[in-house]
């Protein structure tokens, strides 16, 4: 029986809260891959424990890597990579794009599959690229999940040209395991611009942090073969998952502080500082973390989100509650995310009385008075987060399958409930 809908709480007073968020999905899953390929044991401190990262840990375990959770950190003991194995990617882009290159280094057969919708996410360029780099990979011509990798224990590597306009993860997935390829890798991109530049910077920075030699140029990335260090990686809080909490300050004219905001980071969520300020928030940084204050009224946003696409669902919800229209562009690739996010946002917001229009590469949002109703989430964690933002101001938002938020933030509804009820007057 499906779980009952989650009634998104209304904020009857300005929120006033300090929120501590779990670790970054993107950093946790990169750290796990790099630790699995290292020459010595490694520690991943403050990892995110969520569906996407647990699937990553399980995938690596099934290839022969030792991963244990001591409650504080994950201890990773690299082992001889071997099949046979079956990898479940769930709906995690990081698992489906990052693990195949590691699986290709295993000796034996590895089958890679995921949720039904995962079979529709862009994978073709990475399958073709791995083949060109010497990997025997059988996708029965699908260019998508599921596929079988017949590993020999080594990957030749070399130079490859791909069109990564559909997802930056197609590049990251080739780079992360490349220090272990015989010839390393040179990835060249040809096509419309690659999205999510910060995530590519994160890949390069995290590779270098464990001893890899990486050179980058315009649309070209080069990784030299060589050993990777073990040691300790400390995961930053997930700044993309800060979006809805900071946004709550804007919607309610309140104050939200997110603790542990890094001074410097490659996470795209750092762009929230500028984006929320552009909508009228007062953003300050202090010893406690990053604080956003709202005044009670805020404007729309005209922004190219190409580099920070994963912020779109929450920013769209904010835009629907703003005083002036918004135009969000550069995000055609969101059609290949957990769901077609542009279509999903249009459908669900308009079902609540909104006026959201799909553009060839984005969304146009004209604020309208909204009413309650069921908000469908399409197995997309960020649709749950977007619905929660709407629910602050719109009574009766009933969120279908809110548990899907566990993809990156299993404790979301508890954290959200505490934030709303901790406000001075509490709910009515
Ligand atoms: O490498 C990563 O960790 C990610 C890259 C981005 O993917 P796309 O480039 O496909 O948008 C982002 O949206 C995703 O949430 C995480
Ligand atoms: C696009 C996202 O996830 P994935 O890593 O599955 O691509 C996301 O978290 O917004």
Automatic annotation (TrEMBL):
InterPro entries listed in its UniProt record: Enolpyruvate_Tfrase_dom, Enolpyruvate_Tfrase_sf, EPSP_synthase, EPSP_synthase_CS, RNA3'P_cycl/enolpyr_Trfase_a/b
Domain Enolpyruvate transferase: residue ranges: 13-414
Location in or out of the cell: Cytoplasm
Coiled coil segments of this chain: none
Enzyme Commission code: 2.5.1.19
Keyword annotations from UniProtKB, A to Z: Amino-acid biosynthesis, Aromatic amino acid biosynthesis, Cytoplasm, Transferase
Signal peptide range in chain numbering: none
Pathway: Metabolic intermediate biosynthesis; chorismate biosynthesis; chorismate from D-erythrose 4-phosphate and phosphoenolpyruvate: step 6/7
Annotated 3-phosphoshikimate binding sites: 25-26, 30, 167-169, 196, 310, 337
Reactions it catalyzes: 3-phosphoshikimate + phosphoenolpyruvate = 5-O-(1-carboxyvinyl)-3-phosphoshikimate + phosphate
Major localization class: cytoplasm
Oligomeric form and interacting partners: Monomer.
Family of this protein: Belongs to the EPSP synthase family.
The name this protein goes by in its record: 3-phosphoshikimate 1-carboxyvinyltransferase
Organism: Actinomadura fulvescens
């Amino acid at each position: 029986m499906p779980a009952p809908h989650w009634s998104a709480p209304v904020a009857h007073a300005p929120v006033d809260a300090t929120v501590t968020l779990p670790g970054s999905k993107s950093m946790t899953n990169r750290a796990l891959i790099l630790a699995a390929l290292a020459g010595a044991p490694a520690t991943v401190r403050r990892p995110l424990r969520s569906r996407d990262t647990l699937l990553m840990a399980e995938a690596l375990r099934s290839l022969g890597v030792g991963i244990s959770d001591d409650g504080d950190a994950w201890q990773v003991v690299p082992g001889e990579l071997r099949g046979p194995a079956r990898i479940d990617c769930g709906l995690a882009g990081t698992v489906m794009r990052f693990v195949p290159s590691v699986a290709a280094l295993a000796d034996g057969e590895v089958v890679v599959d995921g949720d039904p919708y995962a079979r529709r996410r862009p994978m073709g360029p990475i399958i073709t690229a791995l083949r060109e780099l010497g990997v025997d990979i059988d996708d029965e011509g699908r260019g998508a999940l599921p596929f079988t990798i017949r590993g020999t224990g080594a990957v030749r590597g070399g130079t490859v040209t791909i069109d990564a306009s559909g997802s930056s993860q197609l590049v990251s997935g080739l780079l992360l395991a490349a220090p272990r390829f015989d010839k390393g890798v040179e990835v060249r991109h040809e096509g419309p611009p690659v999205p999510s530049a910060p995530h590519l910077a994160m890949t390069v920075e995290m590779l270098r942090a464990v001893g890899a030699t990486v050179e980058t140029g315009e649309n070209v990335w080069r990784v030299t073969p060589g050993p990777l260090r073990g040691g300790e990686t400390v995961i930053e809080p997930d700044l993309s998952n800060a979006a809805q909490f900071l946004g709550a300050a804007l919607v309610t004219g309140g104050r939200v502080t997110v603790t542990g905001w890094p001074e410097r980071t490659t996470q795209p969520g750092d762009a929230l500082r500028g984006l929320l300020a552009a909508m009228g928030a007062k953003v300050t940084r202090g010893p406690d973390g990053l604080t956003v204050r709202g005044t009670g009224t805020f404007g729309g946003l005209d922004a190219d989100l190409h580099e920070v696409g994963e912020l779109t669902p929450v920013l769209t919800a904010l835009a629907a509650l703003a005083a002036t229209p918004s135009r969000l562009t550069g995000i055609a690739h969101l059609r290949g995310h957990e769901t077609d996010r542009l279509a999903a946002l249009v459908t669900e917001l308009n079902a609540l009385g909104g006026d959201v229009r799909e553009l060839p590469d984005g969304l146009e949002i004209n604020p309208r008075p909204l009413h309650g109703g069921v908000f469908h989430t399409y197995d997309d964690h960020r649709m749950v987060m977007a619905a929660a933002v709407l629910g602050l101001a719109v009574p009766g938002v009933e969120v279908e399958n809110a548990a899907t938020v566990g993809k990156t933030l299993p404790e979301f509804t508890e954290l959200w409930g505490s934030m709303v009820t901790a406000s001075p007057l509490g709910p009515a």
